[in-house]
């Protein structure tokens, strides 16, 4: 079955958050459905489509921003009651817009995730950042404090599994399955889960199947049977697309099997189907220019034609419909279509003219008022959706900036050295400014001038471990008067480390021990300062253990700490050295006396060098090949024929474009590896109390020779 879908833009509301748009159940089979959407102005809009035009059903007054919107209803009746989470309150509306519920929860933070289920009464599963609460008919039933931020929540269908089983998607790459107020089991997933959905919309035949999507774009299905969890399938993000924001199940192909609909934060809409009944296969994708906050399958535009409806970050409701745009048939039908089209085009033209006149009038009014002596200037507010995440694949940070209107320019400033990497999707014009790093500690000043209608900008930077500070982005959209918002991102001392579930305990490890008069929350705040992906809130318990992996080198770190003592183990001496310097500095700031001891394993240096060497060899070879390209191309132009060249030189010419592309994507990669080996050399002898900085030029000479045994011998001399 070939899938042919046409795009339709229906309506724009305010900026929307994740999972805030749903389709109300239809009255008949394949009859059009009403759309209900909540935006960040606090407005709930419900509308239907008649003759291609959006017809409002109801619209509420503005208020606090809407974080989630869910549908509910008693078992075996249409799910048409609308529940919205706004601040710490849940409101309920009927499908006609009459408010029947206003429930102020006892949560101190805003609700970030919500799930609604009718069992004996209305069951609300609500989550703030770290807290889960279950309410039945507005009475508090259960409570759970999570070890890391909760991104989403759902409950397995009670009529199938016969007990209330909530599932929390937590930032530390874990799905937590609860029973009452207790943790039943933890399921490890390959990335931080951002969204959960019941498989097939009902949890599958057993009701135990949950589909998850992750921040780094992976998908997976897990069967949760009580305390047991079985992974069924997993889809890698091979095309390096955005993180998953929304999931739905709907039979868009009409073959009787529901497909999986996915919306990503880079604007990709995807349809997966189950050809082999085992793993999903990507059947169709469509790219929008901004992130997709919600996705739903149903019938919206015309009776009998299914479609996929998405709501985007800036509030556009866009459909991909199976209704053919050009009807095939007699000239009568074509004429009818063209008349319909003509009337639509003329009405759009009239609306456009009307808007242009209105804009001119308002502009004149603004000019006149701004010249009067009593004028008060107001700064227009705009919403920025930003994300700063570490990519495991290339050990770089992705900075994604999304604005509700077109971006004019973005200025990036950093007080620590960072490398800017190339991003394929980025079409902005980049200009670097020279900056003085000495008095102002300014290491980077770069401006991105965006093309018209750019609402989303993706940048990539790579930091250097041991150098920490702040990266700032100044975002200026195309609005008058010109305003700018500043966003700040912390570059941490061990910025290239990523949380992992387990480490290899057989590696040679170096140990750093701290003892002193500090509390658990104090040492936890130091670890938060040093390492990414650590929850800001101190986890419960007397002792805390975290595992990390260095995304650039593959070395590892284990940190275990409690009140009064901390133990850090790593197979990389430089990691231990950075921790020692930063932790003692932080303790000194707070006037805490630390007793520091360390145990250095000589074998770990050889082990780390063996990890670095293949990367070093590869980068040196790449650099040599790139330096030869120009000379070889000149030979090719002069001789016309390159058959006389050795095969290895001919292959360089054949692969020239790919080699240059790869080299351009990884500027300063070789320098970074040289820097890491130099640091390793200095740190090894620093723990012995020897200063070897005068020997560094000798080391660099050996590095240019790229001899692993010679390098190890030099370190051990």
TrEMBL record:
GO CC, alphabetical: axoneme; BBSome; ciliary basal body; membrane; neuron projection
Domain BBS7 GAE: residue ranges = 380-489
List the coiled-coil residues.
338-365
Q: Where is the BBS7 platform domain?
A: 497-599
Residues in BBS7 helical hairpin domain copies: 602-715
What Pfam families does the record point to? BBS7_GAE, BBS7_hp, BBS7_pf, Beta-prop_BBS7
Which keywords appear in this protein's UniProt record, sorted alphabetically? Answer: Coiled coil
Q: BBS7 beta-propeller domain: from which residue to which, for each copy?
A: 21-322
Asked if the record carries the keyword Transmembrane, the reply is: no
Q: Which PANTHER family match?
A: BARDET-BIEDL SYNDROME 7 PROTEIN (PTHR16074:SF4)
What's the protein called, per UniProt?
Bardet-Biedl syndrome 7 protein
Which organism does this sequence originate in?
Answer: Calypte anna (Anna's hummingbird)
